[in-house]
Amino acid sequence: MTESLMDYDMNMTVTWGDCDAAGISYYAKNFEWFTNGYMELLAHYGFPYMGTFHHQGISLVCLKADSTYKKMLYPLEKVIVRTSLTLLTRTRMGFTYQIIKEDGQIAAEGYTSHAFVNIKGIPMNLKKRFPTLWEKLSNIGK
Asked: Which InterPro entries match (predicted)?
């Protein structure tokens, strides 16, 4: 995995609603769990998404998302979604993820890449538009 600027482990339980008719977690749920993971990571480090970004007119638009599935997950199974911020530039954030079963096996891995955009959907340079926020974000882990 890529070097991390910050990490967060989100504990969760797979629900029946997360599963398909075969009783196995539905693949698209990984992307919901990834989103929840990066939202919780940001909040854990003092950057709750709604207050820090959304209410300031900043959106993190997903440019690319990928997930590799390794093990099946079943209802009521407890897992950790390990989220790492691995890219932070003036225009982008990138996260990597691992979904880890209770026995330590990796059920899935993935990544997402996001751009900072304004309320009109236009890409922005966070350092220029929000220098105080940029300063706080860029000093995480230093």
From this structure: HotDog_dom_sf
